[in-house]
Amino acid sequence: MFLQLRAEVEDALESALTRLDLPTDDLGIEEPPEDVDAVLASSAAFRLAGEVGAPPPEVAAQVADEIDLAALPYVSAVTTQGPYVNFLPSDAYFADTLDAATDADYGRLPARHERVVVEHTSANPTGPVHVGRARNPIIGDAIARVLDYAGYDVDRHYYVNDAGRQIAVFTWAYETFDESDLPDPERDSPEYEMVRYYRKGNQFLEEADPDRVEAAEAEVQAILQGLEDGDEDTYERVAEVVDTVLGGMRGTLSRLPAEFDEFVKETRFMRDGSTDDLVGRLKELDCAVYEEDAWQLDLPDFEKNLVFLRSDDTSLYTTRDLAHHEWKFDTYDRAVTVLGEDHKLQADQLSAALDLLGNDTDALRQVFYSWVNLPEGGMSTREGTGIDLDDLLDEAIDRAREEVESRLDDRTRNDLDADDVERIAHQVGVGAVRYDIVSKQPTKGITFEWDRALDFEAQSAPYVQYVHARCCGILSEARNRASDSRAVEPRDDDVEDEVPPAPDVDVLDEPAERDLLRVIARFPAVVDEAAADLQPHSVATYTRDLAETFNTFYRECPVLSADAETREARLALVAGTRHAVANALDVLGVEAPDSM
């Protein structure tokens, strides 16, 4: 209902300012501090004071007097507080919020009929996913989820680098070395088995006799040239390596979870001719130059040129990515790419080149993130010293299992078996990792800390998940009591069960009840804003606010022991909280346990 109330307020303010012959370009609408009863406020009086020639409080009073309260069903009163015009919620606002939140899909917005592709992760298929870049699939998947909730038609893509030097080295190494030359794999999974070849190959190229290295480099170059020339046998050789590694990486990513609708291979844009076509168009640009044995773009505002074709007529990753992006523009209305901060220059040059080629780059949004670190130190897949995401998730589950078991009282132990404990450990452990990462602004670096991520009392995933479990417990107990009551009451089997009447929101007049309704009402707007800004971390902030507000309600407003009318209304409020918490966590890709 918050979105509807906001629309009402915008229309009312615009009409009032028009009648006062004042500009309406900046309505100054904002959410007031917690100690103000209003749901929304306008600070426009600050901006307009100079034009009116009166103090801001006087201007605010003039604006408030011009607002037609009768045209605002979700506003009970319009008041002023100094220079602010405040809009207080009506009973209809609370009643419709309670009604809407009882829908299990609460928070999902109507379809916008706009196709969006979100490209994320896109790590080189050279080995296991490591912790340092775990932020990419987590942020990318959360962005895709929030866009989906906001009504967009979303596709999730992984762009596969299967044409670069690293893959050529990998392919050569896989075909050169024997299994007996390699150490045992760290895990029984394809990417862990295959990465041994990649590491062995790099070690050979760095340490072997120069003549042998020269011969190996010639074989690597032959693979690169074969891809460039469209040699089908070379494609098949490379695909065997790439697809095997990707198969294992997908298993790890699915644990987060991070699922993809399509793995788009770089070689696709070499094989279909679009890269060659693009190179021809790039050469015709005024800023195209041939320098240092390579074709380059001397782009305005960049100190470094963008190389797009080598002297041997082989293209570069960026060249193929330009063709990839033009395909995105042809296929989708909008494109979002999640990238590490070390790719910012490359991404900016890519956008500039796309613009010069006549593409509408307003349709492209790029989200940059900083690294995830562990207190143990640095990581490098190439050297084989990295901390793999699988290890992090395993340890998260183990730690969560210990924490869950330590918190089980005797009553709960009788209700949960070993499978239940294991399920909760996975939900809490993986959820803690994912929530801790997605809840931070992407550009801020993270040092992942176990005590913080798994703290049931702090603002963490378990803290929010426990609210959902508590809501489920209250609703389950209410159903059990109702079932027991019906079992002992005489009934006419010919009479169908009556549909219970909608709860009366008027009985929810305690401050804690109204505060909870206000927070629940905001959820669809939080989704809308997070999608517009591509900032899923704002949804995480909302979940903490919702959890804190519910816990206050739980302490101050007994549910099951209240009188019948109040109990029904509070149960509806608990159900609404459950839906808001579950769906907000779902936006973040975190599971909502029914019990903990």
Shape: flat
Could you tell me how far the N terminus lies from the C terminus, measured between alpha carbons in angstroms?
Answer: 31 Å
Main β-sheet, spatial strand arrangement = 7-6-5-11-12
Helicity range: 40-55%
Class per helix and strand makeup: alpha/beta
Strand proportion = 5-15%
Low-confidence stretches: 377-385, 491-500
Tally of DSSP helical segments = 21
Q: What's the layout of helices and strands?
A:
Elements: H1 2-19, E1 29-30, E2 40-42, H2 44-52, H3 56-65, E3 75-81, E4 84-89, H4 91-101, E5 115-119, H5 135-149, E6 153-160, H6 165-176, H7 190-207, H8 210-229, H9 232-254, E7 262-265, H10 268-271, H11 274-283, E8 288-291, E9 294-297, E10 306-310, H12 317-331, E11 334-340, H13 344-356, E12 364-369, E13 372-373, H14 389-407, H15 410-415, H16 418-438, E14 446-447, H17 450-453, H18 461-488, H19 511-533, H20 537-556, H21 564-588
Parallel strand pairs: 5-6, 5-11, 6-7, 11-12, 13-14
Antiparallel strand pairs: 1-2, 2-4, 3-4, 8-9, 9-10
Helix pairs in contact: 2-3, 4-19, 4-21, 5-19, 6-7, 6-8, 6-9, 7-8, 7-9, 11-12, 12-13, 14-16, 18-21, 19-20, 19-21, 20-21
Give a written overview of the molecule.
The chain is an alpha/beta fold and 596 residues long. It contains 21 helices and 14 strands. The protein has helices at 2-19, 44-52, 56-65, 91-101, 135-149, 165-176, 190-207, 210-229, 232-254, 268-271, 274-283, 317-331, 344-356, 389-407, 410-415, 418-438, 450-453, 461-488, 511-533, 537-556, 564-588, and strands at residues 29-30, 40-42, 75-81, 84-89, 115-119, 153-160, 262-265, 288-291, 294-297, 306-310, 334-340, 364-369, 372-373, 446-447. The protein has a five-stranded parallel β-sheet with strand order 7-6-5-11-12, with helices on both faces. A four-stranded antiparallel β-sheet has the order 1-2-4-3. It has a three-stranded antiparallel β-sheet with strand order 8-9-10. α19 packs antiparallel against α20 and α20 (537-556) packs antiparallel against α21 (564-588). It is flat, with a radius of gyration of 29 Å. 41% of the residues are buried. Mean pLDDT is 92; it is low at 377-385 and 491-500.
